[in-house]
Amino acid sequence: MSRYWSELVNELTPYVPGEQPKTDNLIKLNTNENPYPPSPAAIKAMQAEASDKLRLYPDPESADLKTCLADYYGVKQNQVFVGNGSDEVLAHCFQALLKHDQPLLFPDITYSFYPVYAQLYKIPYKQIPLDIEFNIQLNDYYPANGGVIFPNPNAPTGKLLELHEIETFLQNNTESVVVVDEAYIDFGGESAVSLVNQFPNLLVIQTLSKSRSLAGLRVGFAIGHADLIEALIRVKNSFNSYPMDRFSTAGAIAAFKDNDYFNQQREKIINSREWLNEKLTTLGFKVVPSASNFVFATHQNKTAEEIALELREKKIIVRHFKQTRIDNYLRITVGTQEECEALVESLRNILK
Ligand SMILES: Cc1ncc(COP(=O)(O)O)c(C=O)c1O
Predict the structure, then answer these.
(1) CA triplet 223, 228, 230: central angle to 5 degrees?
(2) Which helix (H) or strand (E) holds 341?
(3) Which residues, including other chains, have CB under 8 Å from residue 65's CB and lie 6 or more apart?
(4) What is the pLDDT of residue 327?
C-alpha cells in the first residue's frame, strides 16, 4: 500500500498465475501448457521476422492474422478480434460487453481471472454454483443478467457442455452477451463458433496457448458478430494500438496453417489423458471426466494438499486450489506420455 495509489488499486485482489519455476529439472504439470513444442513452421516464421523490419510498427489491425483465422473458421474478417493472449481479449470483453446494471453471471468454480476482471472494471457479478457433479447447469443462468461467461470445457474441472446445450441456452437468452471461453475446446469439444452467425449475442474466445503450444507467444482471439467485434476494437484502440507484435502475428499464422502438426500433437495429448485417467482411477483417485489437456482428481485416502507437497519433493508440480468445494482436488496438466508415466510412478510410491 502506498499513499500514491489510486483507490481502485488499493481495493484490487490480482490474479495469481501458476508457478513458473526458474529451474529446468521439474516435471511441470501446473499451468496447462502443451508439453510438445510449437509447429516447426511457426518457429521458422518467427525467426524470419527477426530482421530490420522490427524498426517499423506492426499492422495495428492485424489484418493478415484475422484473415487467416476467418478462413480457418469460415467467418468474415470483421467477425474476428485478436489480442495479446486470450486474457487480454477477455479483459476487453468484460469492459466492452459485460459491464451493465444487471449482474454478470459465471460459475462459482471456474477460471479465477473472471472475478478479477469484474473487480477491476467494477462490474456487478453473481457466481452460479456448479451442480454436485461439477456440471454447469445453464438452466440456472436465465435470471435477468448483464451477460454470461463460462469456459467450455470448464476450468479447472475439465467438464464439457455439449453444443446443443449452449444452443438451447442462446435461444432463450437473447438480451445479453454470452461469452464462451474455449481455451481448451480442441482437446475434445465441439466449438460454438458454428453458432455465431445464428446468434448475434454470442462471442467465442480461443487461444494459441494450449492446443497450439504457444503460451509464450501470447495470442488469443474472439469470433462473433461484427458489432461485438467492433466494441472490442473500440476498447483496444483506447488502450494499445499494437497488441500483436510482428513475431506473434507471423508465428500464429504459421501455426494455424500447419494443421497436420496440430492434429498429431493434440491426439497424443488426448491419448495420454485417457491413459492417465485410467491409471489414476486404479490408484484410488476419483477423476472428473475431462475434455481438456488436464485432469481434475481427488483421492479417497490422502488429501490433495499432501499429495501436491509430496509430488513437489519428487520434482513434479501440479496445481492445488485452496478454494471451498475443490480444496481436496488436484488439477494435473497432461504432459508427454513419459511425464505421465513418471507422475503415476511417483503417485504409486506416495500412496503406498
Ligand atoms: C479458461 C481459460 N481461459 C483463458 C486462459 C488464458 O489463456 P491465454 O491468456 O494464455 O490465452 C486460460 C489460461 O489458463 C484459461 O484456463
Answers:
(1) 100
(2) helix 337-350
(3) 82, 219, 244, 249, 252, 253
(4) 96
What is the model's pLDDT at position 24? 81
Q: Which single residue is written with the C-alpha cell 474441472?
A: 157
The total of other beta-carbon atoms located within 10 Å of residue 55's CB is 6
pTM of the model: 0.97
Q: Is 340 helix (H, G, I), strand (E, B) or coil?
A: helix
The residue contributing the CA closest to ligand 1 atom 13 is 183
How many whole angstroms from 183 Cα to the centroid of ligand 1? 6
Where does residue 258 rank: exposed (0-12), middle (13-18), buried (19+ CB within 10 A)? Answer: middle
Half-sphere exposure in the Cβ direction for 96 (13 Å, CA)? 24
Assess whether the C-beta atom of 183 lies below 6 angstroms from ligand 1. Answer: yes
- With a 6 Å cutoff on the Cβ, whether 155 touches ligand 1 is yes
**Atom number in ligand 1 closest to CA 156:** 16
Other C-beta atoms lying within 10 Å of the C-beta of residue 11 = 11
Q: Is the peptide bond before 153 cis (omega within 30 degrees of 0)?
A: yes
Give 56-101 pLDDT, tens digit per residue.
999 999 999 999 999 999 999 999 999 999 999 999 999 999 999 9
SS3 content of the chain, % helix, strand, coil (to 5): 40, 15, 45
Q: Are 69 and 82 in contact (CB under 8 A)?
A: yes
In short, whether 181's Cβ falls inside 6 Å of ligand 1 is yes
Q: With CA atoms as reference, report the closest residue to 145 among 123, 121, 129.
A: 123
Residues present in the chain in total: 352
Give pLDDT tens digits for 59-68: 999 999 999 9
Cell numbers found for residue 244: 500483436
